[in-house]
Amino acid sequence: MRFTNGGCIMNTITRSAFIRQGSVFAVSVALLGCRHPVVSGHTSDCQTSADSLGPFYRAGAPLRADMRVAGDLGAPLNMDGIVYSDDCVTPLSGALVEVWQADGAGAYDNGSADFRYRASLNSGENGGYAFSTNLPGKYLNGGQFRPSHIHFRVTAEGHQSLVSQVYFENDTDIASDPWASSPEAEARILPVTESENGELQVNFDIYLVLAS
Q: Phi/psi at 116 (nearest 5 deg)?
């Protein structure tokens, strides 16, 4: 199938990737995705918008770039990006990027010493970060499922801390979710591509704001 997105031609395939309480449903995955535009922020044209911290944040996640858990239901997923400063072009080295998510069945590790699906990373000299994980599952929030998502908390010297979440294109639960369906979340609904080895790939560049 071919369709246009912001003037870009994209090809899609169907992949059983998203997990809902242990069951699999189909999602359209972009193979030749175009970079998503960044939502305009309040103080900068490229500010990454914030999202809810949620109740499952845990401080002290270990420094690591591989969060995968053997045998999990979620499809293998690689994620990378660059942390930028307020001017939209200067990469920030040494930024602390904390990430956390549910497992493939939609459960968070809220107490074990393993800190499953939780990690801390430091951005490199060029501002880059990268980690490997499994696609998060979904869980009920009241009477509806939250879409698959990954949480981010990003801190860097001289900049405001950012708490946000990313979602994935073609997730059918985005429209009913009050956070993911917010206009401010539009640029955080990310295209998913597939690498040559069949693993999913997502890019998320992060734009911070200078501390006041």
A: -60, 135
Predicted confidence band of residue 95 (pLDDT cuts 50, 70, 90): very high
Q: What is the CA radius of gyration of the chain?
A: 16
Is residue 188 predicted with pLDDT exceeding 50?
Answer: yes
Residues above pLDDT 90, as percent of the chain:
75
pTM of the entire predicted model: 0.80
Q: Considering the domain 2-207 in this protein, what is its CATH number?
A: 2.60.130.10
Q: How many residues does the structure list for the chain?
A: 212
Would you state the pLDDT for residue 66?
98
How distant, in Å, are the alpha carbons of 79, 116, 189 from that of 184?
21, 29, 10
DSSP for 22-62, written as a single string:
TEEEEEEEESSPPPPPPPP-SSSTTPPPP----TT--TT--
Per DSSP bridges, beta strands 76-84 and 200-203 are: parallel
